[in-house]
Amino acid sequence: MEKKYLYTLGLFFCLVFSAHAQQHPNILITKGKVEAIRQGIEQYPLLKTSYLEIVQQADAALAAPINVPVPKDGGGGVTHEQHKKNYTSIYNCGIAYQVSGDKKYVNYVRDILLDYASKYEKWPLHPAKKDQEPGRIFWQSLNDFVWQVYTIQGYDMVYDALAVKDRQQIEKHLFKPIMQFFTVDCKKTLDWIHNHGTWCLAAVGMTGYVLNQPEYVQMALKGSKKDGKTGYMVQLDELFSPDGYYAEGPYYQRYAMLPFIILAKTINNYQPELKIFDYRDKILSKAINTTLQTTYTNGFFFPVNDAIKDKSFESPEIVLGVNIAYADIAAEPELLDVAQRQKKVTISDGGLAVSKDIAEGKAKPFKYISAWFRDGAKGDQGGLGVLRYGANEDQQCIVLKAASQGMGHGHFDRLNILYYDNNTEIFPDYGAARFINIESKGGGGYLKENNTWAKQTVAHNTLVVDRASHFNGKLKGAEQTASQIAGFKNTPEVQYLYAKENKAYEGVALSRLVGLVTIPELDKPLLVDIFQAQSDKEHHYDLPFWYKGHIVASSFPIKANTAELRPLGTDNGYQHIWNTAEVQLKENAGFISVLNNYRFYTTYFIHDLPLKINLARTGANDPNMNLTQANAFIQSVQGKGVTTFINLTETHGKVDPVSETVTSAKPSITDLAIQKDSDTKFRLTFLAEGKQHQLYIDLNANDNIIKIQ
Amino acid sequence: MEKKYLYTLGLFFCLVFSAHAQQHPNILITKGKVEAIRQGIEQYPLLKTSYLEIVQQADAALAAPINVPVPKDGGGGVTHEQHKKNYTSIYNCGIAYQVSGDKKYVNYVRDILLDYASKYEKWPLHPAKKDQEPGRIFWQSLNDFVWQVYTIQGYDMVYDALAVKDRQQIEKHLFKPIMQFFTVDCKKTLDWIHNHGTWCLAAVGMTGYVLNQPEYVQMALKGSKKDGKTGYMVQLDELFSPDGYYAEGPYYQRYAMLPFIILAKTINNYQPELKIFDYRDKILSKAINTTLQTTYTNGFFFPVNDAIKDKSFESPEIVLGVNIAYADIAAEPELLDVAQRQKKVTISDGGLAVSKDIAEGKAKPFKYISAWFRDGAKGDQGGLGVLRYGANEDQQCIVLKAASQGMGHGHFDRLNILYYDNNTEIFPDYGAARFINIESKGGGGYLKENNTWAKQTVAHNTLVVDRASHFNGKLKGAEQTASQIAGFKNTPEVQYLYAKENKAYEGVALSRLVGLVTIPELDKPLLVDIFQAQSDKEHHYDLPFWYKGHIVASSFPIKANTAELRPLGTDNGYQHIWNTAEVQLKENAGFISVLNNYRFYTTYFIHDLPLKINLARTGANDPNMNLTQANAFIQSVQGKGVTTFINLTETHGKVDPVSETVTSAKPSITDLAIQKDSDTKFRLTFLAEGKQHQLYIDLNANDNIIKIQ
User: Fold this and answer.
1) Where among A359, A381, A409 does a domain terminate?
2) What pLDDT sits at residue B443?
3) Do the domain assignments include residue B127?
């Protein structure tokens, strides 16, 4: 059906630009809505504060001299930041003009674009180019595409107010050579099914619509050869899974969404008959929703893969996504909750609708769900699993990563888990080793330690076999397979995710079950985590739990190394870990309690085999101090056949620093034991506040793996 | 004059209890205001939410069975927390009864107090007693005093509704033996000029008033012998400096304030003619104000000495202090700002006044000031200096500790500085090594590392001579002297604090000048820090800067230790520091840039002598992992005569994670140089954004030490 749809779409193209009169502006703000937006700014607080911020920035731009420097610096450098600032100023002045009608904003956009037009053609490829495809304004072409996506919108907003000769000058000496550069020099990227490609074709397509150049629109939608083998529609087919999940993970999905959405909105304005928002069973709506579902309740994206950890749904891409999803796709009142927490709307038709309905009290709390978000264009490449429990104000959340590799930004962390609670990270993911835009730290790009540490398996909360990383840390092998989703349940008493990974290590089959199980005596559901490895040969297994907070109790004496610290290993990330303590347990069971954000997290473990615990801290073999501080406890065994790691994490108690009271500092669970029927069927028994409980685990019972008995 | 006042006070005592009829309640809520408080709860949002919280807790208490366990556990343990909970419940139910008139709350207070009355006399000294004077309900008598301060208020609030026989039972078998215990067994504490003493006499005095027992009131005000040589009035004379500063420091001042204030309020209600709030030139008002002035704008107290770092002015002591200061001393609208940020008022006459005036829009921003807060009863024991610059929303703040030792909770950190900016710590103080109320961490008390680390000089941002702590870490020597205030200025362009310390090390005179100097090219005033040591003999000097954040740039290559970490020393705190890097500088000048909370802090330094930089991290010789993570750069030289450390810290730039932009990541200052006229007169020259600046320093020019030229 999708193929057919695409074909129909093709038919339209010859008609488009004769049948539809051009009007300006016609992207986020459409001409017919300008007056309503002006009135809305008076009436709706969110629209007003958002506009005031824009106009303040626009005025600041007007107050400074126009500065179009010769491109020179890499990411974060002076010319880099100036050109970023310029496109923002062009965009902001466009909005300020539409709302205020004040020509001074038009003059600014005119002057700066004429300045660019007088220089652009002289600029060669950027001198700070690296491995990536270079731009001419920026060190990578990606930034040039982004520049154009914003600039063409600013241009569209002042178009009607510009003199014809100025438009000609700008189009001829700036936009035309830019389009030439994007569609010819950067053709490979335009045709690349990848987020860099999306930015390229959004820039090309939007410019095509605004300048009334159907040629560019066709290239954007159907690829440089206009044959439909690449381009936007193929990207919509291939870059998202049927659940709207983007293979690189939430951080990159956030970034990738913007060109998808804004081009869709542009298409919808110029060619509403294409019903682009309905395409592929509303894939764009699903993608926006999945972007939101892959945040924790504090708004931060699950930082799997090469993620910068301080990115939240407040980022402009998601503000735009929410506004368009609400206004153009489906006016779900839960989206208004997100918009309220973003504290911002776009000054646009969508922003008007959102701020109006918020002012009218229509918002409802956003509904976070427990689900597998399947990966892969066909949904068969595993997925990202999420369990949630509790109100948005204080929610437990588990993430199980059992997806595809996620291309070059992927980490070697199959079956990795993240645990959140109480609005903070409990078992975090390190994210990327990068100080984005900080030039003094590796030019603001990915640091060497991103490969030697952040991508390595031991940097994650998942099993390391024989101290090697999954797929030996090689992208090629990793890209050929994905983990498999093997179970899911979502009831008030029991929720779980179950997944398998058979290729990360040759000859070792891995599986992980994570669940949230309600035990009446406990403050919050118990995090059940069962990790199995199966192999004919004997292996060394390490299971790290990177934790936030401070260890305050343990069932065994910890004797941290006092006189010297040494790295835990020599490679695969182990070289970056200081071995702060090592304990060979006398009993193969025990617990560790961590205090984090005024709450306690006690992880109980039990094993068949002699169990060793290492406490670990990042920082070894890091001469440039590129690593941030992280702490872990690592469980290790040596085993053959089926090896099972059982970890139950109890979330308990409260420290109130204001009243200086502590409740339930001691964990409730005792006497954890395991009774095996077989390797895949066993009972976990324990006392909670002295009361006996039993969990019956049957790993082969797809819909009923965890039973409370 | 104070002596005379005290004498006059003595005369009143014989008259008091015949002339003044008893009424109940008559402490925070007075009988005549009950109806107004009831109405206020309907009208004023802050009073309403505060009351709803109280009544919710009262209802929770009613819903649970009464539990008066035999005292057994230490701080944070089960019986400890239960008895704390009980006095809170008694207090809350008293309030709930006064507001609602519902007898169920009276019945709860009656039943629990009768329960205590049936048991208390059988309880011996607490079994978990340690070094401190033991209580009978708690492991230390201090907690027993606190218990009584709250309980007597709850009793006062239900007094009129209790049957006479119940009152007799409670007074005879609970309060009378408690008073016996406090005034006889704990007599030493009652007469101790110390915050434990304050709690004791507040409990005794308030109980005396409520039970109409002038005997106890006299003991509270004039000491156990009623001779005026100890007791409350002497405490008011001696525990606060003329500026209202309390020698143990802000964290303990907060704690000590509550009994001072609540006893004063009780005295004022029963004996308004004593004008207690006017005593010693309004010393209580000054003390409350100084408590607020020794917080940063985020509300957290400057954590000098044995401070728990998560204490802010939201703590109940300060809520009460602000309410009483506003209602009973002076209705300053700036106090309403604090009350708003506390998000809470006491359900009381004072809370009514505060919430009413907030509702009427009378609040004004709290005025933080730059000042020396003198220490010592006579104000001659040095002081705590504070410099502030900028709006409350984004304020730079420097603290210079040049006070007395602050008794047993004092740290050996003469001339220590703390730097705050952007609502966070930049150069922090470690505070205490303690997990308060976490029983698994040393019973919730001070950890061994509080002595071996937190109190040691090297744990602070001040000069360490020959790797020994001030006064060799001995309290006795330290208590005999204080630092000296030696200069102060507060103009918009130049602010500074100057102080001297001549006794911390034998034969070495120390002085430190810290200032904030406005340089037009810089984003924010420059932190100027000049530390001098003078000695006839050669010494090794270490000047640590404990910093928050991550080092992102430096003028010299840092090669962190990659293969092993070793402690920096063997004692005086050095044994707890991992030496992460060591660099002998080629030039005796340079800079280090730290990124912290999305802003940059670049510290430039210059020296006459060969300069070594160590990078350091806590954690060595810490087998129980009692230390939290902290990082420092330490400047070291070997010198004789006058040795001068010059450090200029520039606060610059911004990282915006939402828009992914970075501004002014590179510092503005270059070419720092020094030209000496003499050891005490010299010029610092530097370029800021290429423009030449000169600071002329004359350390002997008291009112004009820093001149911008």
Assistant:
1) A359
2) 85
3) yes
> What is the distance between the alpha carbons of residues B678 and B698, in angstroms, rounded to a whole number?
9
Q: Are residues B135 and B208 in the same domain?
A: yes
- pLDDT, mean of residues B421-443: 94
Q: Do A20 and A149 have their domain in common?
A: yes
Cα–Cα distances in Å, from B569 out to A564, B437, B574?
12, 31, 5
Cβ-defined contact of A660 to B436 (cutoff 8 Å): yes
Chain A to chain B Cβ contacts (< 8 Å): 141
CA distance A378 to chain B (A): 32
Query: Distance (Å) from the C-alpha of residue A616 to the closest C-alpha of chain B?
Result: 12
pLDDT digits (tens, 9 = 90+) for A254-268: 988 999 999 999 999
Question: Which residue range forms the structural domain that includes residue B496?
Answer: 371-708
Write the pLDDT tens digit of every residue in B461-471. Answer: 999 999 999 99
Instruction: Give yes or no: residues B386 and B350 share one domain.
Output: no
Chain B residues touching A658 at Cβ < 8 A: 312, 314-316
By CA distance, what is A631's nearest residue in B? B629
* Number of residues that this document lists for chain A: 709
Q: What is the pLDDT of residue B11?
A: 41
Cβ-nearest to A316 among B436, B623, B658 = B658
CA gap A170, A116 in Å, rounded = 8
Q: Are residues A24 and A149 in the same domain?
A: yes
Q: Pull the structure tokens for residue B650.
A: 């520039």
Are the C-beta atoms of residues B226 and B169 closer than 8 Å to each other? no
CB contact under 8 A, A655 and B623: no
Q: How far apart are CA A467 and CA A182, in angstroms?
A: 45
pLDDT tens track for A444-480:
889 999 999 999 999 999 999 999 999 999 999 999 9
CATH number of the domain where residue A582 is located: 2.70.98.70
Low-confidence winner among A70-74, A608-612, B74-78, B108-112 (lowest mean pLDDT): B74-78
**CB–CB of B76 and A665 under 8 A?**
yes
Say yes or no: A483 and A628 in one domain: yes
A252 is catalytic: yes
In percent, the amount of chain A with pLDDT more than 90 equals: 91
**pLDDT value at position A11?**
42
Beta bridge partners of B301: B295
Q: Tell me the residue type at A251.
A: Y
Once rounded to an integer, what is the mean pLDDT over residues A56-72?
Answer: 97
C-alpha separations of B599 from A313, B421, B552 in Å: 22, 9, 11
CATH value at residue B21: 1.50.10.100
A495-508 per-position pLDDT tens digit? 999 999 999 999 99
Instruction: Please indicate whether, in this complex, the C-beta atoms of B565 and A563 are within 8 angstroms of each other.
Output: no
Which of B652, B658, B666 should one mutate to test binding to chain A, selecting the residue with the greatest count of A CBs within 10 A?
B658
> For B201-225, how does the pLDDT look when each residue is reduced to its tens digit (9 = 90+)?
999 999 999 999 999 999 999 999 9
B441, burial (CB in 10 Å: exposed 0-12, middle 13-18, buried 19+)? buried
pLDDT band per the 50, 70, 90 thresholds, residue A14:
very low
Determine whether the interchain pair A438/B595 forms a contact, defined as Cβ–Cβ distance below 8 Å.
Answer: yes
One-letter amino acid for residue B173 of the chain: H
Do the chains contact at B440 and A655, CB–CB below 8 Å? no
Which of A658, A668, A689 is the mutation pick for testing B, counting most B CBs within 10 A?
Answer: A658
Same domain for B298 and B403?
Answer: no
Q: From the list B314, B615, B620, which residue is nearest A658 (CB)?
A: B314
Own/partner pairs, A6-15, CB within 8 angstroms, 24+ separation:
A6/A228, A6/A233, A9/A221, A9/A233, A9/A274, A10/A222, A10/A228, A12/A271, A12/A273, A12/A274, A13/A214, A13/A217, A13/A218, A13/A221
Catalytic residue, candidates A91, A105, A209, A252: A252
State the catalytic residues of B: 252, 409
Contacts of A632 in chain B (CB under 8 A): none
With a cut of 60, say whether residue A342 has pLDDT above it: yes
Q: Mean pLDDT across the stretch B52-68?
A: 97
